[in-house]
Amino acid sequence: MSISVKTFASTAEAATALSGDRAARFMGGGTLIMRAVNEGDQSFNTILLANDPALTEIQAQGDRLIIGSRVTMAQILASRDLEFLHPVARAVGGPAIRNMATVGGNLFAEHPYGDLTAALLVLDCQVTLAGGQTSTLPDLLRDRTREPRVLVASVSIVRPQSGIFKFRKVSRVKPKGVSLMTIAAWIPQSGGRVSGARVAYSSMGPTPMRVQAVEQALEGATLDETGVGNALSAATSGIEPPTDAIASSWYRREVAPVHLKRTLLGG
Amino acid sequence: MSVEFRKELFADERDDNLNEIGKGTQRQDALGHVTGRSPYFDDHLFDGLLQIRCVRSPHHHARIRSVDFSQAANMPGVVKVIRPDDVPNNFNTLLSLLNFGRDDEALLSSKKVSYVGEPVLAIIASSDRQARDAVAAVKVDWEVLPHVLDVEEALKPDAPVVNEVYPNNSFDYHEKYDHQKLRYGDVETAFAQADKIIEGRYQMSPIEQAPVETNGAIAAPETNDRFVCYTSTQALFFSLGTAGKLLNVSSNRLHFIGGTVGGGFGGKVDSLVEPMAILGCMLTGKPCRFVWDREEEMQVGAPRGAERWYLKDGVMNDGRIIARQFTGYFDAGAYTRLSSYAIIKCTGHLPGPYHIPNVKSDVYCVFTNRTPATAMRGFGVTGVDFAIECQMDKIAHEVGMNPVEFRILNAYRDGDMKAHRREAKNCALIECAQVAAEKANWPIREEFKQASSMVGGGGERAAIPHTVTDEDGKIGDRRAGRSGGGRTRTIAPSSPAPAPAAYTPPPPPVPPPAAPSPAAQQPSYAHPAAAPAYQPSAAPASQPATPEAPPPAAPAPTPVPAAPSPESSPPSARPVNRPGYSRFASNSGFRRR
To answer: Which residues of A touch B133 (CB under 8 A)?
Structure first.
């Protein structure tokens, strides 16, 4: 059977087609789907596209930003509103990949991809599906390989105040290597102490994830060498890092506190 | 990094008007690469190009009871199914072009498979995806057989037979032995006289060449009943000859066009894709493309083969190695490909770049149910070099010598006789070791700094010693449980040398390690790395004073006469012009290169 490509004017139609056909995949930018096509992936035979302009829009709504699921990394880099995400978008691939890779695709990208998703996890991301339903990002990630597949229309994130949002991608090859681990953190402080921290990893499990043990250890801590000690001790608590071509599980576990410390304290 | 020349070394041995090295020379293909214009085989996309994919074995070892492709043949886009019977001459060995070894491998196997990924059927379809879908629809009834993946297990009498052409699971050397022999001097007598016996076991894993461009070829009909084949091959005429043989066509009907190879490193000489693409073209009359995907490149692309080595050295307390014995096992995988040749090349390299007067080696080319092994940069030599150099460090540690000084002491000098009976020329290990030690701030004593490859060789060291030979390991003995030939004999040396019974260790090269000065009795180096500390051993008191370096021995006469046939000559030694057990090149005329 050959691959067939279906293009829809509306996101809702594409979502219906997607949920009704296990052998269909929705293509955001094509960095993963087209690679699979070229490698002869026989798990799907239909590619769905949607031309809905709303999917490629970036809108500011109060202190939140709505990003269409087909917005590319290159568009993020061109957006002043999303300046805080520029280091994140720049960490994804090279220019050619960033011209194709989309926000929605990143949510469904399998390990070791998903650097942007780690950032979204700490930016209080709300997900809006093609039918208008909403979901939290952790729920979406948990269910992302389940049938029927859902189509994400947009994500909504909060605009961080200066200095609160931190991001670090660790890779063997710079600047374009895949992630050994990616760390995103949202570290608000009150009276010199951390209050309401959010920390997320990518490439440290089957999907990007929040790291509750670290978040709890940071609560009330001062943002200095002594203060983050407990958080570093808890860096991989409850986590089973994967072994892949980039690093072993053991190695990821060993270096996680080092990179977490650099993310939190700089350097 | 600037390049530093040591032109004073070997100045008399080469014309040293270097006009390229050390200068910024642009690669001739760089412009094409950076502008995306270098032509690869895969740039020749004909209209209506058909795609070929193979049905492959999921088992290490299995008999093929039946193959049902009725459903696959009727699937959309499928143009033709290529069966083993469609291959005009479906049996080959790569080196048959050089008359070395027996045909042992099919392009498509019909009776049995001996490694995971072995192809049994090929599908030609209009698109790659259609070919893949049809491949998935082929039903093969496999009878899974016991398999063997370890070289020493494979040589046991009860091991499964991997390759029916070589039912002893080992390549037949010189139509006589199940291994490649090297005999030089008398290791057993020397072992008995050595101060220390040091043994080691070393294992190397297979290495995939991992080119960015996978193996592939595109073939199309040409005028005058010819076929054009664009290919990624590293060895154009080798691939042409192989395709001509498998397809039973004269090579003048094949028009091979190479060009840019997208990475090869030895992984693109096996010529498996070209015959298949041309065959597809012959059977359909249409242009056909056969390209491995990445998974195939990793799984069925032949790697550098694994090797296992056992080394046994007889060493004197002053650090001289007087005997070295090798037992090596090359894992050829399921078929010969180039492993048989790797061993010939390897044996010519033994015992490494060191003057050792007694050397014995048995190297086996073993068939296992692994992916067949093939060429990769320096194959046949790099593996055993790893073993040798690990062993050298081990010996240096055990005799308490600085490992660099230990290498300089034992290194070949110009004029030394090598174990395969060629004179050592243009030796440079000593100079390399001196420069490496200097660059690494690794202290060596003055007399080792003064040593030279051009001094101390030849003379007695050029003499071919009494050589003890044997007929152990005749083809089939091991599997039949017979204990080998057992007959041994000695061959007289080429020039006066101690008889085996009166064996004495060879003289050390010039200069001998001088009696250390009081200062030198302290450890003469203290490297920050965790190198073993050692006490330099004093030279034996009986060591002779340094003689003038004798001139290098005259070159050995060539060509080497064939070894006397044991069947036609009595076991007693008879006069031969050239001592030695067997000529190095095989009796097929295949020469080392």
So the answer is: 1, 42
**Same domain assignment for residues B226 and B364:** no
CATH classification at residue B451 = 3.30.365.10
- Interchain CB contact of B214 with A (< 8 Å): no
B485 band by pLDDT with thresholds 50, 70 and 90: low
Q: What residues of chain A lie within 8 A of the CB of B294, using their CB?
A: 39
Domain of B393 in residue numbering reads as 148-207+303-496+518-593
Residue B40 domain-assigned (yes or no): no
Q: Is B132 in Cβ contact with A40 (below 8 Å)?
A: yes
State the total domains in chain B: 2
Residue B230 gets which letter from DSSP? Answer: E
Give CA–CA dist A120/A100, Å, rounded.
19
Query: Domain of B77: which CATH number?
Result: 3.90.1170.50
Interface test with A, best of B42, B53, B133 (most A CBs within 10 A): B133
Q: pLDDT, tens digit, for every residue of A37-64?
A: 988 899 999 999 999 999 999 999 999 9
Same-domain status, B295 and B307: no
State how far residue B75 is from chain A, nearest Cα, in angstroms. Answer: 8
**Is A2 in contact with B293 (Cβ distance < 8 A)?**
no
Chain B residues within an 8 Å CB radius of A42: 129, 132-133, 136
B127 touches chain A (CB under 8 A): yes
Q: Which of B299, B317, B346 is the last residue of a domain?
A: B299
Tens of pLDDT along B289-340? 999 999 999 999 999 999 999 999 999 999 999 999 999 999 999 999 999 9
Max avg pLDDT among A186-200, B1-15, B469-483, B516-530: A186-200
- What's the pLDDT score for residue A175? 81
**A3 contacts on B by Cβ (under 8 Å):** 129
Task: Please tell me whether residues B580 and B538 are part of one structural domain.
Answer: yes
Residues 6+ apart with CB under 8 A from B556: B417, B421, B422, B423, B494, B578
Closest chain A residue by Cα to residue B53 = A40
Domains and CATH numbers, chain A: 4-50 (no CATH), 54-158 (3.30.465.10), 165-265 (3.30.390.50)
Chain B residues with CB under 8 Å of A1 CB are: 76, 129-130, 133
Residues B353 and B328 in one domain: yes
pTM for this model (two decimals): 0.81
C-alpha closest to that of B57 among B135, B150, B134: B135
